[in-house]
Write the structure tokens for this entry.
Amino acid sequence: MKIVQIIPSFNVGGGELLAVRLCAEIKRQQPNYKVFFVSLYDPIPSIVYDEALASGAEILTLGKKKGFDPSILLRMANVLRNIKPDVIHTHLAGLRYTLLASLMCRNAVKIHTVHNIADYEASSAVKQVHKIAFKIFGWMPVALSETVKQSIFNVYKVDAHVVNNGIGINLQILNAPKDTLRKELNLPCEHQLIITIGRLWKQKNQALLIEAYQQLCRKNNNCSLLIVGEDPSGGNFRKILENKVSNLPENIRDNIYFLGARKDIPKLLRTADVFVLSSDWEGVPLTLLEAMGYGIPTVCTAVGGVPDIIEHGITGLLIPKGDTNALAGAISEILDNQSFASQISDNAQQQFKQRYSIEITTHGYLELYERNLKHV
């Protein structure tokens, strides 16, 4: 079988990371399958590119220019003509640049994974392209959870398959002592650590977490906040957040760390006492699954597919989006009650093993590819 995974770029994001890890796991489970990893943009230094190089997939890049680049349509057609794939699997902006080229691949299974709530995945114009792909040209949408599946039906009036998001866990890091990792990463050993991981962007609403942290510090001056992630706006959004922090009292702002984009996310997670997702909307974020896999108790806004994963009080805590008081209270509940924190993190870790490993996710996609190839 020849499988093509198509992403827009090597920027760090959940969709890109899933695609490259899917390539690697397909090669591990089915070494005789040929896997191709296609990026519209040329490589940039990132964990996505590093993992692509190590995946065993053949990497092809199309040299896209910023904005709409019609030349990509021809380059994509040449790539697909040469490969003659059995499966074309697009992620994020990949579908809009692949649809026309895919028309020559009549016998290929065509799949598009929707990585967010469908309402937020694309602009109105691009949604029309997706609708044409799904309803006329036989592309199959894949949802990361039941809530995402429902959003796809609401927007496109088509049914989607559900394949849970998944991620791998490094057992060596999982079993490493927390204090050892904190010393290695030069993080405060004596503080309780709160961590959030994600693009610095309005969707992730790190500003809400900063406000909740300020409130938390009124009764707990023994905690620090780690904000991890790159700023896709070129630094503008990070500057907004940093200005917000600069107005805080010195004893609070000195314990907030902007760590930028990192390649050592598993180690950073294992140092933390609580993982927080303060987003205004989400699909099924890989960082949340990764926190569960590494046994870190979680506090999340109840948006998108998150409530499909987290059962409040059992595998984590859910709060209404935009509620500073609720967020501060939920973080405090975990930091102040070690027994409760251990219980929910153990429950979440068991759920992760049963549903959200990259092995299970890859098996789900391979089953989907193989089943539908029989009907092409």
In short: Residues 338-355 form the longest helix (18 residues). The chain has two domains: 2-166+357-373, 171-355.
